[in-house]
Write a structure and sequence with these properties.
The chain is α/β, with parallel strands linked by helices and 344 residues long. It contains 4 helices and 40 strands. The protein folds into 2 domains: 13-103, Udp-n-acetylmuramoylalanyl-d-glutamate--2,6- Diaminopimelate Ligase, Chain: A, domain 1, CATH 3.40.1390.10; 171-321, Hexapeptide repeat proteins (UDP N-Acetylglucosamine Acyltransferase, domain 1, 3 Solenoid), CATH 2.160.10.10. It is 14% helix and 29% strand.
């Protein structure tokens, strides 16, 4: 259960109302009027709560849950405790997400512009904007409708921000074009210089970074992630991509649609990710590589060569997952054999 000191909860809803919002089906139509007060975890829910089961690993918890109603896959219905109301969904976790959104809708501040924000006279601000304290907005910036900019954000000259975006506290945005429904969490850095320099016996010579960062729509960028602008072309992020906290995206990187990049990944300059690529935590990818659409890379892998589409890779240096697992098994057997021989 959420702490209502931080999260404002909606009014109770019937299962009929909930099923209509989340696209689930009532297992028993006679349960339609059952009233749900809140959402909760499977092991802590009580008779007034709605919960979900999406992982068979928790089937034992499901069989003992005290929840009044549970969102489950139809195949799991036979394992439900007697008397539990069931909402059937082929995608229980997604359905739960929609239910949780219904009970805890995002609370936006009323439109206003702080008296201590600094906005250049040439900047254009759309309707319904909230601009917090000590925000700095540069010359010729264009901001769409219903944008929410939290305190101490810096937006550089010429930046374009689409409708329904939210920029978290202390974020900085420069040399960038953001689409609609983009969310930058606190501390995000977008559009700063890429790490580009020429090597000379007398020292390093900085290469001017003359590109931009261009983002599509419906993108989320986690706290303290850094996205460098391009050196000549642009750094681009496709619509629907979600990037976790503490990720580094180098200059000229191209990220496709619907990608997921988990925390502490680093993608070096000029590498291209296709659509729906998944990078586990702490993956490092060298520069000038191509990662094919729907490829998946396991956590802590170091990628040094191109990855074909739809393949799963892991390890350092990264290789196809089956090959890595075979090598690991062989090395394990070899280690045990060597240990036995040494004892002989």
């Amino acid at each position: 259960m959420a702490d209502t000191q931080f999260f404002k909860k909606a009014n109770p809803m019937s299962l009929a109302q909930i099923s209509a919002k989340i696209g689930a089906t009532l297992a028993r139509p006679e349960d339609a009027d059952f009233l749900v007060l809140d959402v909760a975890a499977l092991n802590s829910a009580t008779n007034d709560h709605l919960t979900f089961l999406d992982n068979k690993k928790y089937r034992a918890q499901f069989s003992e849950t005290k929840a009044g109603a549970v969102i489950i896959h139809p195949d799991m219905a036979p394992y439900a405790p007697q008397g539990t109301k069931l909402l059937l969904s082929k995608t229980p976790y997604k359905s739960y997400a929609l239910a949780a959104q219904a009970f805890y809708p995002e609370t936006r501040p009323d439109p206003s512009i702080s008296d201590v924000a600094r906005i250049h006279p040439s900047a254009k601000i759309g309707e319904g904007a909230f601009i917090g304290d000590f925000v700095s907005i540069g010359a010729d910036v264009v901001i769409g409708d219903n944008v929410w900019i939290e305190s101490h954000v810096s937006i550089g000259a010429g930046v374009r921000i689409g409708d329904h975006c939210r920029i978290g506290a202390n974020a900085t945005v420069s040399h960038a074009i953001l689409g609609n429904n983009v969310r930058l969490y606190p501390g995000v850095r977008v559009g700063q210089d890429g790490f580009g320099f020429a090597i000379d016996p007398a020292g390093f010579v900085k290469v001017p970074q003359l590109g931009r960062v261009v983002m599509g729509d419906h993108i989320e960028i986690g706290a303290n992630t850094c996205i460098d602008r391009g050196a000549q072309g642009d750094t681009t992020i496709g619509s629907g991509t979600w990037i976790d906290n503490l990720v580094q995206i180098g200059h000229n990187v191209k990220i496709g649609r619907g990608c997921v990049i988990v925390s502490q990944c680093g993608v070096a300059g000029s590498t291209e990710l296709g659509d729906f690529v998944v990078l586990g935590g702490q993956v490092g990818i060298a520069g000038h590589l191509k990662i094919g659409s729907m490829a998946r890379v396991a956590a802590k892998s170091g990628v040094t060569k191109d990855i074909p589409p739809k393949e799963e890779w892991m390890g350092y240096p990264a290789m196809p997952m089956k090959k890595f697992l075979r090598q690991t098994l062989v090395l394990s057997k070899l280690a045990h054999k060597t240990k036995a021989e040494n004892k002989a």
